[in-house]
Amino acid sequence: MAKKVYAVRVGRKPGIYHTWDEAKAQVDGFKGPVFKGFTSMAEAEAFMKGGSVSSGAAKSATVKNDIVTAADAFQNLQKVTVEDGGKYNILDSQIKEQCIDKVALITKAFKTAFASPVSIDDISANEDVKTLMSRYGCDFDSVSSDVNIAFVDGGGDKVGANFESTRILFGVVFYNAEESKFSLYRYALERGTDFDWLFRASNVAGEELAALFAMYIAARLGLKQIHIYQDNNLPAKYFSGAFKKIHKMDDYMLQIFINASLQYLKQGMEINFLYVPSEHASYKDKAKATKGKAVYESQDIPKVAFEMAEFLNGVSDRLADYKN
């Protein structure tokens, strides 16, 4: 893991903790906490004394991001409204009823995708993935994580005059920490089928599908915790409460995503979203890479090293690539 020591300067019981669970207990629900994770005790002690941290650490301990506890996410999601010729709470029976048949279709797609994982050997032989391995010095055997993680991506081919898509794709790179095992998944939904209702916002729908599929995988594996890494932070915005409403009644995918997330949270699954910079964008623009890494490192939650995050994010992007 990238961080080993957690310093809580303002919290229920300020101090230095050696596990995230211990530190989390001091800051969850505490108003205005100030805390940060470090890779050395010296940095943690300097932080506790109010001193500066080394250049390898984030400059601020209170950088805003979308990291929230599962309990806070549960409360935030319940408050989302759908506003289109009226105002409906996300839990309203009318919202649920209009999505029943669509939920069944998505569940069927998830079952099919889960039953047909992508071969790790095949993806490792992909020239783009070989390039990623060389670029970041990582492969599937070099991950180190004590928590279950999923790197997710989705999108469409956007071939029409108005950027309509003929397919929506989603990909998930899933790591089961209990078994130290990777599983890769990819699925495509075709236009002109029962999924036409998804194509109103095809790119975002793919991201939401991928994130929801990661939760589905965790549930199927009997796991009670998942960290979802995503370079499109829309789902995280709803979890954090930054976004509180859905603008269109026909945005069925987002309604399904939120209601399904609530069910997983209600059943006791610990779900966290982490932002990871787009590997494509970071590689092309060094300024974006620098800024993206700073934001990534500011997220005070156990996570994989930045280079590993970019590698796995790149793999999830290739899984969701319509060209493959």
From TrEMBL:
One example of the protein's molecular function in GO is: metal ion binding
In the UniProt record, does the keyword Signal occur?
A: no
EC class name: hydrolase
Q: Which residues form the Ribonuclease H1 N-terminal domain?
A: 4-47
Tell me the protein's name: ribonuclease H
Keywords assigned by UniProt, alphabetized:
Endonuclease, Hydrolase, Magnesium, Metal-binding, Nuclease
EC number of the protein: 3.1.26.4
Please list the cofactors this protein needs: Mg(2+)
Q: Name one Pfam family in it.
A: Cauli_VI
Q: Which residues form the signal peptide?
A: none
- Is Nuclease one of the keywords? yes
